[in-house]
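Final report, closing paragraph on structural work. Over the funding period we assembled a curated collection of sequence-structure pairs, and we close with a single example.
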Amino acid sequence: MSKQPRDDANEPIPVLGLQPAGGSKINFNPSSSSLSTQFSASIRVITLYATADCYVEIGDATVQANTSTSHYIPSGFLYDIALGSEFISAETFKYISVIGATASGVLHISERN
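Its predicted structure, as stored:
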């Protein structure tokens, strides 16, 4: 039986909680890629919020974001990102790298469980 919260029809609502002490931030600029610290082993999803437009990449400790092939994240929006799937091990996606599109900013990261 699911331990998730339930709606008015008694159906489970898929909600992920926030990992205690699982918030972090990365200062970024358009000149070079910045790397996060390693995410907790149990984390499968992260929520991102950027204060300026940026590009992000997830991967191992060597991952680097770039402005030509990385994923664009506009400022002011929340994005939930899976760190793995049933086909890709989340063990390989324990870092996120970010680079500014045109300006410096802060990428806020919330680990979800």
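The chain is about 0% helix and 40% strand. The longest strand covers residues 18-28. We thank the funder for supporting this effort.
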